Amino acid sequence: IKGEIKMKLALTDSMVLTKKERKRSITLAIIIGVILMVGVQTVVTEVPKQFVSNIGAQEIIALFVNIFVILAVLLFSRIFESRSAASFGFTTKQPLKNVEIGLLTGFVFLLFVFLVNLLSGSIEVSFNLKSISWLYVIASFFGFLFQGTMEEVVCRGFIMNTVSAKTNVWMGVIINSLIFTALHGVNDSVTALAIFNLFLASLILSFIFYLSDNLLLVGAFHAIWNFMLGPFFGVPVSGYSIYSSIFQTAPLTNKTLINGGGFGFEGGLGLTICAILMLIVLFYFVKKKNDDAARG
Fold first, then answer.
1. What is the dihedral of CA 203, 208, 211, 213, to 10 degrees?
2. How many other CB atoms sit within 10 Å of the CB of residue 47?
3. What is the pLDDT of residues 233-268, one digit of tens each?
4. pLDDT confidence of 23, banded at 50, 70, 90?
5. What is the pLDDT of residues 186-211, one digit of tens each?
6. Contact 207, 170 (CB under 8 A)
7. SS3 of the chain
8. What is d(CA 13, CA 19) in angstroms, rounded to the nearest whole number?
9. Which residues pair with 237 in a beta bridge?
10. Crossing angle, helix 26-49 and helix 55-64, to 10 degrees?
11. Is 28 exposed, middle or buried (0-12, 13-18, 19+ CB in 10 A)?
12. d(CA 291, CA 285)
């Protein structure tokens, strides 16, 4: 039918490679992989707390130790499924450029989320130069690069590519987004709207990964998302408060539906609006990519 939207999405190069390389049961691989991720992350995060008392230092360590989770998942996938790092979307082609694109795109998106909340009058923002721990802020920026990339390795590189290669891309997008939402949906101050927004956020990350087929790019987008919320704007990150921030953003209690209250912007309508608009733009490019591929 003329004008019909083609819903079938073609596999990306990393998905094709995943389909070629992977072995074993898809269900078993995902279950073991998620348990491994949670287990390793818990150990490498909790153990340092026994030796470090400063809360800020504990948060920084918790961010950087995600490198061990990344290595554990890649090693497990290599041994259990015979998958290479390339099948996760890792590539040596212009890595810095892709990181820069991810950081810039994420910065612009979160700036819009902040402006929606600010212009709607749902937050009050202050700035106190003396209260800022610059060492924490700078260290957290680099730490979030590891933390954001870790979640993308697990959800997009591992789960999305595995499911997409076995079934189809839409199933990969939906299943990885449900797991992503479930992993974040147990955090403090979570609401029904927050869970919905987490699912939207995962769709955004999934489509960015699909369009770029580059894990460093989507990892950078995820990293700057968390950094902008926490150490930059001073908003809880998925319900977690942070040690220090450049700005102090206080949500007004009578407008928690917009600002997300204790969960942060991810629990409010301000992010919902921006996320839906972002998804419309991303889906346009996803459709264009598939149409171009069909013609070529």
1. -110
2. 12
3. 999 999 899 999 999 999 999 999 999 999 999 999
4. confident
5. 888 899 999 999 999 999 999 999 99
6. no
7. CCCCCCCCCCCCHHHHHHHHHCCCCHHHHHHHHHHHHHHHHHHHHHHHHCCCCCHHHHHHHHHHCHHHHHHHHHHHHHHHHCCCHHHHCCCCCCHHHHHHHHHHHHHHHHHHHHHHHHHCCCEEEECCHHHCCHHHHHHHHHHHHHHHHHHHHHHHHHHHHHHHHHCCHHHHHHHHHHHHHHHHCCCCCCCHHHHHHHHHHHHHHHHHHHHHCCHHHHHHHHHHHHHHHHHHCCCCECCECCCCCCCEEEECHHHHHHHCHHHCHHHCHHHHHHHHHHHHHHHHHHHHHHHHHHHC
8. 10
9. 240
10. 150
11. exposed
12. 10
Other CB atoms within 10 A of residue 250 CB: 12
**In this structure, which amino acid lies at residue 210?**
Y
Using the structure block, give the residue that is written with the tokens 């937050």: 123
Give Cα 167 distance to the centre of its chain: 23
pTM given for the model: 0.94
Q: What percent of the chain has pLDDT over 90?
A: 79
